[in-house]
Model the fold of this input.
Amino acid sequence: MSSGTNASQPSSPRPSTSSKRTLAIRSVRQYLFDIVCWAIAMIFAGILRFDFSVNRLHPVGMAALIGLVALVQFISAMPLRLYQHRYHYGSFEEVTAVALAAVVNCLVVEVFAVLVGMGMWGLPRSLMFIALPIALVLMLGVRYITRKWIETKVRIKAQAASAPVIVYGAGYAGSEIVRQLSTDTLSPYRPVALLDDDPNKRHARIRDVNVEGTFAELAAVAKRTKAKVLIVAISYADAKLLRRVADAAKPLGLEVRVVPTIEKMLNGPAKAAINLRALSLDDLIGRQPVDTNLAAVGGYLTGKRVLITGAGGSIGIELCHQVHRFGPAELIMLDRDETNLQSAQYRVKGHGLLNTPDVVLADIRDAETIRAIFLDRRPEVVFHAAALKHLPMLQQYPAEAWKTNVVGTLNVLDAADAAGVTTFVNISTDKAADPTSVLGYSKLFAEKLTAYMARKTDQHYLSVRFGNVLGSRGSMSTLFALMIEDGGPIQLTHPEVTRYFMSIPEACQLVLQAGAIGKPGEALILDMGEPVLILDIAKRMIEMSGKTIEINVVGLREGEKLHEQLVSKFEAAEVTEHKKISHSRVEVLAPDELDFDAWMAQINGE
Done:
């Protein structure tokens, strides 16, 4: 009898001799069951055809015909591998294969009967057509009953050791989760109820699990089912929804788990329990994945030589990873930190040997070296992510911001011009909009230099501006996590301070998209959604840690804004091709106009 295991998976271990013997016995048994079903169906069809006159049936002829059906059934099932464990037991695919084999069997035997003649066996020619639906009902019925028996055994066995869960979402993801959890004897979860906000699914039932209502009825359903876990089975659920779920689940004592994306469910591990994960900070303040125009992005990256500066930083590493997926002719990862380069190479190539030309150790402050590298490697597309970014540090050492963010950017732009780079994307920051800090002014000048080079070269040179990214090295969330790990307190600059946030993958997807749709000299401004109160993030991180941590307010630092903005009051940003990217023109700044003293005077308001 066929099992519920898909033996075609290449990752499955090689079956032992005993398991092979067991599978062979099941195959023979399933085949014999099907022949018995055919025999019962043919005898009953004959009785019906002869108006329940059993004496008119010719026993020898019936036995010969059953033997022929048994032979044809075996032959017709071979190309379908019906008895070779190709299908999950009782699945739609197996039902289709059973029906197809039965129809072929009926037609072949009927043709034989017409050619040879049923009369010699004392049987009517219509016998097979009458028997076909009866045989199908019997064969599929046996499979259905067996499957229900197996699933009932699995459920009973798993109930004692598994936690009852409520699944929020009765769509594809929810159905898949319920199916896997209901048939996995090792699963730590047991679905007891479904919730869905679609009124059309109010009385839906999936694998004996009912949709008990909408999310508003969570408390009542949790109390009635004694659930311990709430699984959010909504792929691409946004942060607003997940915050609502987390806030509702906490007073009920429900642990919250989320499913991966549909792609990961289809391509990841087979066990749903492996894919399920706890809520993360990204889930609670991050946002939905970007709808990337893959054709447009691939058009300027595929088959091209691409160079990324700052390749070892958080944004740089993710950019390298995403660019690599588009199949560039060459990906050149440049950074001044060898350890960071090793991380980038491992992410892209799966090793960190640092002995291949795809990693380049150089400092963008060194104009001569950068120019030589560009002339030697001849990149066609450049993503400039190298920069100093910590606002309070640069307030103390503004000359370092000037050397790296301003002069370093100019060095890369000059080298790109000399090498004939056709697309140059300068990664900027929201702090460049109406700047009040050294960091903001340095990045604004980098944008202006990029706009100047776009005018000079008449090539695709532009800047991309966005706010904070979650989980980057040295980011606020990373620092809060360290403070919590050390027992606190968390140092907060101001209880009302807000910032824009996005995940690193989302930011990089939008950077790639911006490179495809931006016009020369523009600053493309990424939609960061609604600003997030930093105090709320601190409180959620403390709550997720399970610790009691104090929050100390220390005051805003020099040059720091209470609320960031993405667009300057002097800019007019317009949304065009991509709903999450706005376009704004940037003033140009010629290199010969650069003056450190004048720049410092501007920062100091002189």
Observations:
- Residues 294-469+502-529+566-603 form a domain with the Rossmann fold fold (CATH 3.40.50.720).
